[in-house]
């Protein structure tokens, strides 16, 4: 059985490269969602802890770290690569026990992490402005230069700590910013251990700090802190709104990556051997606790019955159990609260007219101490039903039939969200029309949930703004200065307001 130095202990924050006890001495238990047992005790941070961490991050930002050259930051990434590669199994097991994701999945995230580190390492030497033409005069050279934004506040969700952190760390370390991380209450241990490993790799003191605790206290204090220059929030729409409002304190830059209710569109000409497991795992992955989960499954009517039969068969073959077992396909939900939430959506679906075709129950027996639910499929779902509109964050698929491409498109876009989406078809023209017209920040064709740091992900509508990864990611961590240089040293160009010359 996997054991860890954190288990049974009261943990501290990680500030200035050291473990620091919480100002208040208050602790909260961190549970194994597969068994309900307490794994460790997490500090309940306060605004004082946030102040301490922000001061450490500011000191680091103004200190020697600001003098590091791009190649030195690149070297740091390479050392981080080695340390993460050597210690990834530990991170994977810790995460599996802490949040329930099957161990085969968390171990599989190693490749993602190492590729992301490599990608962000290359960005260190790629940051630069442009020289630009101007209409002022031939004696004036104009350009943009880039400068790190400063201290970042990073507020994280609990569902994919081994993936989500790299966007933030990548942008922070590649540009020379510093950061205070606020992990989610349920996934603090992975973040603490990962940041400890960064220090083992040679991270300068205070460049990355962690303050654990409740969202309404630590998250709020970070979002409104006057010495934080930018806040990056990933989580629910409700909390995201509060972060946007709090960010007004010093008009800090803000990025919010929020929830989704993504459409997954299956045409009758889809490659079914891909589409059936693809549509199922687009929801069952991480027990449905993925922001991009394709929970609104639109199936062309002429393929509907056959497709649903295959989907039900796939769902019933899923092996449900503790994530730590290597033959588990789907682990538990994260908490009792999340279980209650998912079951309330399931219980409310039939009264609204949906038909339960498989699943719908909490698992008992050996699994009764954990938060396990069956993979669940509802048919006869209409777009206005609650399960078709609201983010459930559980393994629940709503199947909605359609007859024409136009109808599929209209239904797909009938949502307040716009995070992900997918189409399954062998007709490339049809796929292109969907790519162009579905209002989603990330879109897949004949696949789902592929993610690459260099390509990124984005959001439309309530799913937030700012984006992660891709060609504009670094700009989120940089100021752009516009520079005008008069190199004539003469009166040929008026020294003031040259641009206003008649
Ligand atoms: P959540 O909003 O409850 O919590 C997210 C983080 O915000 C946590 O660290 C929490 O402590 C903190 N928080 C809560 N209230 C806050 C406040 N008032 N001020 C500042 N911080 C606060 O979300 P969750 O339950 O951890 O995660 C699930 C949600 O996250 C889902 O809606 C999911 O779709 C979304 N999510 C989005 C993405 C994305 O990239 N778009 C990725 C993962 C998860």
Q: Describe the main β-sheet briefly.
A: 7 strands, mixed
Q: What is the first-to-last residue Cα distance? A: 79 Å
- Walk across the major sheet and give the strand order: 14-15-16-13-12-18-19
> Roughly what fraction of the amino acids lie in strands?
15-25%
Number of E-type strands: 22
Helical coverage, percent range: 25-40%
Given as residue ranges, the uncertain stretches (5+ residues, pLDDT < 50) are none
- Which fold name corresponds to the CATH topology of the largest domain? Aldehyde Dehydrogenase, Chain A, domain 1
Global mean pLDDT: 96
Active site: 257
Pfam families: Aldedh (PF00171)
Keywords: Oxidation, Oxidoreductase
GO molecular function: oxidoreductase activity, acting on the aldehyde or oxo group of donors, NAD or NADP as acceptor
Characterization of this structure:
- The protein is α/β, with parallel strands linked by helices.
- The protein has 2 domains: about 15-255 and about 470-480, Aldehyde Dehydrogenase, Chain A, domain 1 (3-Layer(aba) Sandwich); about 265-445, Aldehyde Dehydrogenase, Chain A, domain 2, CATH 3.40.309.
- About 35% of the residues lie in helices and about 20% in strands.
- It is built from 13 helices and 22 strands.
- It has a 7-stranded mixed β-sheet, with helices on both faces. A 6-stranded mixed β-sheet has the order 9-8-7-10-11-21, sandwiched between helices.
- β10 (about 230-235), α7 (about 235-245) and β11 form a beta-alpha-beta unit.
- It is globular and about 80 Å long.
- About 50% of the residues are buried.
- The model has no long low-confidence stretch (mean pLDDT about 95).
């Amino acid at each position: 059985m996997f054991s860890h130095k954190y288990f049974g202990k009261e943990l501290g924050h990680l500030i200035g490269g050291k473990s620091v006890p919480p100002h208040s001495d208050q602790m909260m238990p961190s549970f194994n969602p597969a068994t309900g047992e307490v794994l460790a005790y997490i500090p309940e941070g306060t605004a004082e802890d946030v102040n301490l961490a922000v001061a450490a991050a500011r000191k680091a930002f103004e200190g020697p770290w600001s003098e590091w050259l791009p190649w030195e930051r690149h070297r740091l990434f390479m050392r981080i690569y080695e340390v993460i590669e050597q210690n990834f199994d530990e991170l994977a097991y810790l995460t599996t026990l802490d949040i329930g994701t099957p161990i085969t999945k968390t171990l599989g995230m190693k490749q993602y992490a190492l590729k992301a580190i490599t990608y962000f390492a290359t960005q260190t030497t790629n940051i630069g402005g442009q020289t630009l033409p101007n209409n002022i005069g031939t004696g004036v050279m104009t350009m943009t230069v880039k400068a790190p934004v400063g201290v970042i506040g990073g507020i994280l969700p609990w569902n994919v700590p081994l993936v989500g952190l790299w966007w933030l760390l990548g942008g922070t370390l590649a540009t020379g910013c510093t950061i205070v991380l606020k992990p989610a209450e349920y996934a603090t241990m992975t973040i603490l251990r990962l940041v400890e490993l960064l220090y083992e790799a040679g991270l300068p003191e205070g460049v990355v700090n962690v303050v654990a605790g409740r969202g309404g206290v630590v998250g709020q204090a970070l979002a409104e802190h006057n010495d934080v220059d930018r806040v990056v929030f990933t989580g629910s729409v409700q909390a995201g709104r509060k972060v946007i409002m709090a960010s007004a304190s010093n008009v800090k830059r803000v990025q919010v990556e929020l929830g989704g209710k993504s459409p997954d569109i299956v045409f009758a000409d889809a490659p079914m051997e891909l589409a059936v497991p693809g549509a199922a795992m687009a929801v069952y992955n991480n027990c449905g606790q993925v922001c991009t989960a394709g929970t609104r499954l639109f199936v062309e009517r002429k393929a509907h019955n056959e497709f649903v039969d295959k989907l039900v068969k796939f769902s019933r073959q899923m092996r449900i159990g503790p994530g730590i077992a290597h033959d588990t396909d789907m682990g538990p939900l994260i908490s009792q609260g999340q279980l209650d939430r998912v079951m309330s959506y399931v219980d409310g679906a039939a009264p609204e007219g949906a038909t339960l075709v498989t699943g719908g129950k909490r698992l008992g027996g050996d699994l009764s101490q954990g938060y396990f639910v069956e993979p669940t499929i509802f048919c006869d779902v209409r777009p206005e039903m609650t399960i078709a509109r609201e983010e459930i964050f559980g393994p629940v698929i709503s199947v909605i039939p359609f007859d024409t491409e136009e109808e599929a498109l209209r239904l797909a876009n009938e949502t307040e969200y716009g995070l992900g989406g997918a189409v399954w078809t062998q007709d490339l023209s049809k796929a292109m029309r969907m790519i162009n017209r579905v209002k989603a920040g990330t879109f897949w064709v004949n696949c789902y949930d592929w993610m690459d740091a260099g390509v990124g992900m984005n959001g439309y509508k309530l799913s937030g703004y700012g984006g992660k990864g891709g060609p504009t990611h670094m700009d989120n961590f940089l100021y752009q200065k516009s520079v005008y240089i008069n190199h004539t040293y003469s009166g040929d160009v008026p020294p003031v307001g040259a641009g206003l010359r008649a």
